[in-house]
Design goal:
Layout: E1 12-14, E2 17-19, E3 23-25, H1 41-52, E4 57-64, H2 84-95, E5 100-106, H3 126-130, E6 139-140, E7 154-155, H4 158-178, E8 182-187, H5 192-197, E9 212-214, H6 225-237, E10 243-246, H7 267-276, E11 281-284, H8 290-298, E12 304-307, H9 309-313, H10 317-324, H11 336-359
Parallel strand pairs: 3-4, 3-12, 4-5, 5-8, 6-7, 8-9, 9-10, 10-11, 11-12
Antiparallel strand pairs: 1-2
The structure holds flavin mononucleotide (FMN).
The site of flavin mononucleotide has 18 residues, from β4 and α9.
Length: 361
């Protein structure tokens, strides 16, 4: 599938949408919205800053498809038409510097109704409600909590599942209306869809199973890579264009049990699914160096490479990657008001080096 000359800065066209390069900013929840789920000035600055860094595809954080589908009371949402103007404004910020705007739909399921990570990431209760942070009823495949002491979710009945599918359809239509060009269905990390997939969370006997996958559960007896390969084939048949290959997260504290975490530790999942299900894949997880990211694409191990935390650490990562890979010797990818100065500085430094070498100093 990969041409020999394909690399991190090759464009990729799928279904008429062309990404200028293979670098993706992974969805990252900021837990910084108000209870209305609307983006605010922080979100516009945050995504504008990431867009200036030059990724091909820039995901917003996950958008909750219903208010009950949030993780915290501070998540962004897309559960009503009232969200559209602010989301369209966010799309404009992302597109302003050439990134393709993408978003993700989430229903947190049994992992919802918790406080923000830096406030404990624990179930909301009467005490938090007294401070304006009220809990809500959570839903899942079966009435099994994500962790000991967490909310016991209600198992969705057939009508509830039908309503949920309608909610997905409405939210997807709104995402298109707001101007997003790529949509990712969050089916990983223990949220609602994952709880239907994994035998650890789904003890149902009916057959409601239905595209970020947790490719393995990181827990004995759970969802496996073989399951993911089989599901990826079905997803491809159902029209999915890319399978985004993450892992784990079913319960808050079940990670790192089985999965070791060297750089790019989830790349083997993307590689196997790409080969065996013949579907384009995205690799994500501890990918931090340009050479590694480039090798993943060149080696045909994945079609796209997503970076998450490294983009928080360095929002200009894609621009630096282009420099490191010899794809931008003169800072031409940078906004000219920055690039012109940086190129001049680099030239001056090179000259200083030459004269130091010439004088033997
Ligand atoms: C602050 C933060 C928020 C995240 N929120 C989401 C999210 O909304 N949806 C999602 O699929 N993954 C989410 N993730 C996971 C990242 O998209 C990514 O898969 C993970 O951080 C591993 O990649 P990295 O090592 O490059 O950070 C989040 C990660 C972080 C650090």
């Amino acid at each position: 599938m990969t041409q020999p000359s394909t690399h991190l800065f090759s464009p990729l066209t799928l279904r008429g949408v062309t990404l200028p390069n293979r670098i993706v900013i992974s969805p990252m929840q900021q837990y910084s919205a108000g209870p209305d789920g609307l983006p605010n000035e922080f979100h516009r600055q945050h995504y504008g800053r990431l867009s200036l860094g030059g990724p091909g595809l820039l995901f917003t954080e996950a958008l909750a498809l219903t208010a009950a589908g949030r993780v915290t009371n501070s998540d962004l949402g897309i559960w009503s038409n009232d969200h559209l103007p602010a989301l369209a404004a966010l799309v404009a910020e992302i597109e302003r510097f050439g990134a393709i705007p993408a978003t993700q739909l989430i229903h947190a399921g049994r992992k919802g109704s918790v406080s923000r990570p830096w406030e404990g990431y624990s179930p909301l209760d009467a005490a938090t409600a007294a401070k304006g942070n009220a809990p809500w009823t959570t839903f899942s495949a079966s009435a099994i909590p994500a962790n000991r002491g967490w909310h016991v979710p209600e198992a969705l009945d057939a009508d509830g599942i039908k309503r949920l599918l309608d909610d997905y359809a409405s939210a997807a239509a709104r995402a298109a209306q707001a101007g997003f060009r790529v949509l990712n269905i969050h089916a990983a990390h223990g949220y609602l869809i994952h709880s239907f997939l994994s035998p650890l969370a789904n003890h149902r006997s009916d057959n409601w199973v239905m595209v970020r996958l947790s490719c393995v559960d990181d827990e004995p007896g759970g969802w496996t890579l073989d399951d993911s390969v089989a599901l990826a084939s079905l997803l491809k048949e159902a029209g999915a264009d890319v399978v985004d290959c993450s892992s784990g997260g079913l319960g808050e504290r079940t990670t790192t049990k089985m999965v070791r975490r060297p750089e790019g530790y989830q790349v083997p999942y993307a590689e196997r699914i790409r080969t065996e299900a013949s579907v384009p894949t995205m690799a994500v997880g501890l990918i931090t160096t340009p050479a590694f990211a480039d090798a993943v694409v060149r080696g045909g191990r994945a079609d796209l490479v997503a970076i998450g935390r490294e983009a928080l650490n360095n929002p200009h990562w894609p621009l630096h990657a282009a420099r490191a890979l010899g794809r931008d010797e003169r800072f031409e990818r940078w906004p000219p008001s920055w690039g012109w100065w940086l190129e001049k500085r680099a030239r001056a430094a090179a000259l200083a080096e030459t004269s130091t070498n010439a004088t033997g100093g």
